[in-house]
Amino acid sequence: MDQTHERKMSFEGAESRPAPPTSLPLQGQGGVASQRKKLSAPPISLSLDQSEDDLFDTPDDLDINVDDLDTPDEADYTDHEIDWEEPQASQRDSVKETVEPIPTYSAEEERQDSKLWRTVIIGEQEHRINMKSIEPYQKVISHGGYYSNGANAIIVFAACFLPDSDREDYHEIMENLFLYVISTLELMVAEDYMIIYLNGATPHRRMPGLNWLKRCYQMIDRRLRKNLKSFIIVHPSWFIRTFLAITKPFISSKFSSKIKYVNSLAELEELIPMEYVHIPECIIRLDEELREAAESSKAQPNVSSS
Fold first, then answer.
1. Is 220 helix (H, G, I), strand (E, B) or coil?
2. Is the pTM here over 0.70, yes or no?
3. Residues 219 and 182 sit within 8 Å (Cβ to Cβ)
4. How far apart are CA 152 and CA 108, in angstroms?
5. Which H or E element spans position 223?
6. Distance of CA 208 to the CA centre of its chain
7. Sign of the CA dihedral with 136 first, then 124, 230, and 250 last
8. What is d(CA 306, CA 304) in angstroms, rounded to the nearest whole number?
């Protein structure tokens, strides 16, 4: 009987006990957790007209239709896709469009450039000649072959090929032509030489200035001035004769002795071989006119005497 009573008491006591917890207590439920220090959160004051539940409610009048939204096309996205991955790519593309690559310099272009510009050294100083500007006037100086056993060169200077002095770029052309004449003379002459100055058929506007001729003489290398054997002037005009007469006191006696006047091509042929001497057509016509005039002047006294 006592055992039955004890079992009854224990059953009733079990019903009055609270059910055992299914999880460990986290805060303030006794044990070790009850000994932890509790931290109180600071009070938060929210002054909102709506309640906390209303914050997450969607208004009834806000009816969003996803299908009606204007979304970018795939093509629009691909156009700006590079900007997302690399923002400065568009800037580099614009720079590439404005900056052109340096063109390659071919061998043919280099040869053409060497024809347009020539670098020469005169008096231990480097000069650049614009060959394009003097292209029509390069015939002013030419090689006329050799004389005296083929050792001495004949240099022909034709004044009729000089530019007109009324050109706007006259001084620039004469400067480049001056360098061309001096440098060409140094290339043509190895030993002794003579200069044939073709003065005929040259209008006054093409006659070189006194300063230009003086500068040519001064810029000629000392070796060239020494090796010059004769300076022959063909069809000399009164201007040339007057100029040489005025400057004779200022030039050396050696150079004055080298100057010779020739009135016709026939006289010139008696002094030098004419096989390789190029005579311009205008000078040949002038020489024929002068010869006919000289013959007619000789015939006139015979007619008057008869």
1. coil
2. no
3. yes
4. 36
5. helix 222-227
6. 33
7. positive
8. 5
